[in-house]
């Protein structure tokens, strides 16, 4: 995937929607493509939260204690809460179909946020929106 394609995808992801093209270009430059075949476990509940993921194509299922919580698809993201808090993953994520993901490491995400206060506010607003949609249960919004 070339940087321009990544930027176009990032612009559709609500977590990054309020960032400038320059900021998105920086995010795109530090993401890594990750291919996951259908049925593979992307991460498990209790794993270290070392990266967040953006779905380029495919579908994933979020599970807690082995029970399905939700299905995410193209332009959705997951893993942001553990990346921000440094806590262990509070759910597992499994690929339902073959998936192409963009992986953003914790240190790179923090660097993006450290470089611009507006980016921090955009991330906070989006996480708050997710909390409002789920009645304030952070466990249902982020991993």
Overview of the structural elements:
The protein has 143 residues and is of the alpha+beta class. The chain has one domain: Sandwich (Jelly Rolls). It is built from five helices and eight strands, in the order H-H-E-E-E-E-E-E-H-E-E-H-H. Strands 1-8-3-6 form a four-stranded antiparallel beta sheet. The protein has a four-stranded antiparallel beta sheet with strand order 2-7-4-5, with no helix packed on it. Helix 1 (3-12) crosses helix 2 (21-30). The longest helix is centred in the C-terminal third of the chain and has 17 residues, at 117-133. The chain is globular and about 40 Å long. The model has no long low-confidence stretch (mean pLDDT 88).
Beginning-to-end CA distance, first to last residue: 26 Å
- Described by its quaternary structure, the protein is single chain
**CATH fold-level label:** Jelly Rolls
Write out the CATH superfamily name: Jelly Rolls
Portion in strands: 25-35%
Tell me the number of strands. 8
DSSP helix count?
5
| Spatial strand sequence of the major β-sheet | 1-8-3-6
Radius of gyration: 14 Å
Helix content: 25-40%
Spans of at least 5 consecutive residues with low confidence: none
**Count of discrete structural domains:** 1
What is the approximate shape?
A: globular
- Topology pattern, helix = H, strand = E: HHEEEEEEHEEHH
Mean pLDDT across residues: 88
Largest sheet: 4 strands, antiparallel
* CATH class category: Mainly Beta
């Amino acid at each position: 995937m070339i940087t321009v394609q990544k930027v176009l995808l990032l612009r559709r992801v609500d977590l990054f929607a309020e960032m400038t093209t320059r900021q998105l270009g920086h995010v795109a430059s530090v993401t890594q493509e990750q291919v996951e075949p259908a049925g593979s476990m992307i991460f498990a509940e209790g794993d270290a939260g070392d990266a967040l993921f953006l779905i380029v194509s495919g579908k994933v299922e979020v599970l807690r204690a082995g029970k399905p919580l939700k299905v995410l698809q193209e332009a959705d993201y997951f893993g942001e809460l553990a990346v921000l808090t440094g806590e262990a993953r509070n759910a597992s994520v499994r690929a339902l179909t073959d998936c192409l993901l963009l992986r953003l490491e914790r240190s790179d995400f923090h660097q993006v946020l450290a470089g611009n206060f507006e980016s921090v506010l955009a991330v906070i607003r989006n996480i708050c929106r997710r909390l409002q949609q789920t009645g304030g249960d952070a466990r249902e919004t982020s991993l």
